[in-house]
Design a protein that fits this description.
Length: 711
């Protein structure tokens, strides 16, 4: 057979379900589980991705029949199935018999067995063994009517591979890209510290590297290596799958060896996991982030982190996405267990749908009684009886089943475009500009922290965000400026000449570019530009700076007299962590530092350039200042929206349905009841009640309303 290309079909409804591992259950209960799923409105389950040793208990000995009763039972109940390939969790026999397939986390340091993603997926032996298994799984179950899609691997890109063969491929890749070592020496600046090489075999391994262009090239290579593996495995599946079966992978958005857009490009649909703190972590107005209330691997807290992940997910392919994993109760760690308050599961799922999710699946159906993730709570707890969580999931399943078909094709609003740069993220992990608060330790999450700060300000202002990466920007700059009147570029550290030219043209064509400190500093090799910053954007910004400073203490701000743009209240909040010493040219300051030294410089400026303008933020805002900036952007650059909320516990999120109608999702993220005056006549699709224009829309604690304009 030739590769089967997906015909683009998904069930004409919102898919809802969970990962289901019948093989993990402590006793036989398949019928009970599937009946409970049917009664909860489940329409999909995911199976099979974690158990290579079950599929192939010994090399060349395959057991494929164990899954058939699960698929048959699901199909009998109208539940579709996504089957996963188990390449991310290898069996002990593979490690012991083929130790050379072990992934190296550092040069010469194999990853000990016992976890996952611990194989060198580029190794020929690993691929030979995996291909033999995948062919058998797909060949066995592609004809099954329950199967609607395939997930290859799971959360790829967890490790940067340091195996000898990987490093040799990296050197060969550099040789092909640069041609000769003289060019490499020049492009990477290897004169420094005597790093010049005279032959390719003199290139040192990455472990002790201190050169930024080297690190950026290494990270790019690792991301391509991961993408190539996923594309290779997807090709095997397509040769045996039906055309109506999609191929994807479960993407974790923050893995170190992944460029999300590049990884998903050859696949059929984006599928992601979305994890976030619940309980008070979802409350508005937001309180102080308490890291002890969330697992260490969740780098951001607050309600906006849920919406940011959803917007990043939709931005991967600029289209609707599948949520392959989200949590029903606690997240993963025995010492960090904060299951949701009543209503929060329902809110979180509807929030994902509001931002473009076509599927919401919990990880997982039942809490597991053994293994590393014993305390990662499922829809059913360890007692395996339906309880509070199951009841709320069942309510949600009923709602999605009743109205989900009407929401297929939903296009979420996007007031502000956000430029996400994986290369800037990698570069600022290598040379972070910020420190971990309260320490002198470099904060490897500096890029995420900067991006999250500005996103929270946009979110607090009631604005919706559409995420794009640099290679997704339109060639027609004027058309992009008309469609996206505001473009936020947080910490765009690595930027090619062409990208900076595009941004300047975007402003000239009428767009409002909001850029932050550390934007435009490095070229596409990761080398610092020999220019007065912000370099090529200086004429557009109307400012330049010759020096910058970290700040150990936050600074108050004073309003600039005769601010260049009107329409909003005076700046409020404080500047934190960083200050660019902005020298004003044609720009209009919006706020100055209130300090005997830093007070000579403005913290925020804006400048008219061509038909548009550019705002430059030379500091990291605290929450009130970020919120003010979001309000200022809304007031000065966007049309009024009578549904827009900000500052309270209610958020409003809009979109357009495939029939052209408008939809609005309202949430109350609080214990206190709330209300919003309807600016237009609407119909509540969950209750089928009408609300007249000017009448209040009531929301209870942790509540949701789904409304369509009733014209």
């Amino acid at each position: 057979m030739t590769d089967a290309r997906w015909d683009g079909s998904l069930p004409d409804k919102l898919l809802f379900g969970a990962a289901y591992y019948h093989e993990y259950q402590p006793y036989e209960r398949l019928t009970t589980d599937l009946d409970l799923m049917r009664d909860a409105g489940f329409s999909v389950i995911r199976v099979g991705e974690s158990v290579w040793s079950t599929w192939e208990p010994e090399e060349g000995v395959y057991d494929l029949d164990w899954l058939e009763p699960v698929l048959d039972g699901a199909h009998e109940r109208g539940i579709s199935v996504v089957v996963g390939t188990p390449s991310y969790a290898v069996p002990p026999w593979l490690r012991s018999r083929y130790p050379d397939t072990t992934a190296h986390r550092r040069t010469g340091q194999p990853i000990p067995y016992g976890g996952r993603q611990n194989a060198d997926f580029s190794h020929p032996t690993f691929r030979r063994l995996l291909e033999a298994l995948v062919r058998r799984i797909i060949g066995r179950y592609a004809p099954h009517p329950a199967v609607i899609g395939w997930q290859v691997d799971n959360e790829p890109g967890i490790e940067l591979l340091h195996n000898p063969g990987v490093f040799s491929r990296f050197v060969a890749d550099l040789c092909e890209r640069y041609g000769d070592v003289a060019t490499l020496n020049q492009r990477w600046g290897l004169t420094y510290w005597s790093h010049r090489i005279s032959a390719w075999d003199e290139l040192w391994p990455p472990d002790g590297n201190t050169d930024p262009p080297y690190d950026l090239a290494w990270r790019r290579f690792q991301a391509r290596l991961t993408a190539e593996f996923i594309e290779w495995q997807a090709g095997i599946v397509r040769r045996l799958a039906r055309p109506d079966q999609f191929v994807t992978t479960c993407l974790a958005l923050n893995r170190p060896a992944v460029d999300n857009v590049d990884l998903m490009r050859p696949l059929d649909v984006t599928a992601v996991n979305l994890y976030f703190p619940m309980q008070d972590g979802l409350a508005l107005p937001s309180g102080v982030d308490r890291p002890e209330l969330r697992p260490a691997w969740i780098g951001a807290a607050g309600l906006s982190s849920l919406f940011l992940q959803a917007d990043l997910s939709r931005g991967v392919r600029q289209e609707p996405f599948l949520v392959t994993e989200t949590h029903a109760t606690s997240i993963g760690e025995h010492s960090v267990s904060y299951p949701p308050f009543d209503g929060q599961l329902r809110q979180a799922a509807w929030a994902m749908v509001a931002r473009g999710a076509r599927m919401v699946e919990y990880w997982h159906w039942h809490s597991i009684h053994f293994g590393n993730e014993t305390y990662w709570g499922g829809v059913l707890g360890h007692g395996l009886e339906p309880g509070r969580i199951y009841e709320e999931v069942a309510r949600l399943g009923e709602e999605l089943g009743a109205v989900g078909a009407d929401l297929v094709g939903l296009e979420p609003d996007g007031d502000v475009a956000l430029l996400f740069s994986p290369e800037s993220r990698w570069a600022l992990q290598f040379q972070p500009p910020l420190v971990v608060p309260g320490t002198s330790t470099p904060d490897r999450a500096s890029y995420d922290r900067i991006l999250g700060t500005f996103y929270r300000g946009i979110f607090a202002a009631g604005l919706a965000t559409a995420v794009v990466q640099p290679d997704q920007l339109d060639a027609d700059v004027a058309a992009f400026a008309r469609r996206c009147p505001v473009l936020l570029a947080p910490a765009l550290y690595v930027a090619s000449d062409d990208l900076l030219t595009w941004l300047a043209e975007y402003v000239a064509q009428g767009g409002h570019l909001v850029a932050t400190f550390r934007t435009g500093c490095a070229d596409d090799e990761g080398r610092l530009r020999a220019e007065v910053m912000p370099g090529r954007l200086a004429p557009v910004a109307g400012v330049r700076y010759l020096e910058s400073s970290n700040m150990a203490e936050s600074l108050a701000l004073r309003e600039a007299p005769n601010r260049g743009m009107t329409g909003s209240r005076a700046p409020e909040g404080r500047a934190t962590c960083w200050a660019d010493g902005l020298e004003v040219g044609s720009a209009s300051p919006l706020a100055w530092y209130d300090h005997p030294h830093f007070g000579r410089w403005p913290a925020i400026t804006t400048n008219v350039h061509g038909a548009g303008h550019m705002t430059y933020v030379g500091t990291l805002p605290d929450a009130p200042l970020a919120n003010w900036l979001g309000d200022w952007i809304a007031d000065t650059s966007l049309s009024p929206d009578p549904w827009r909320t900000g500052g309270g516990s209610i958020t409003s999120h809009g979109g357009r349905l495939r029939d052209g109608g408008r939809i609005r999702f309202l949430f109350n993220w609080s214990w206190e009841p709330g209300s919003l005056v309807a600016p237009t006549r609407v119909r509540d699709v969950l209750s089928d009640r009408r609300v007249s224009a000017g009448a209040p829309i009531e929301l209870g604690p942790w509540d949701v309303r789904v409304l369509v304009e009733d014209l």
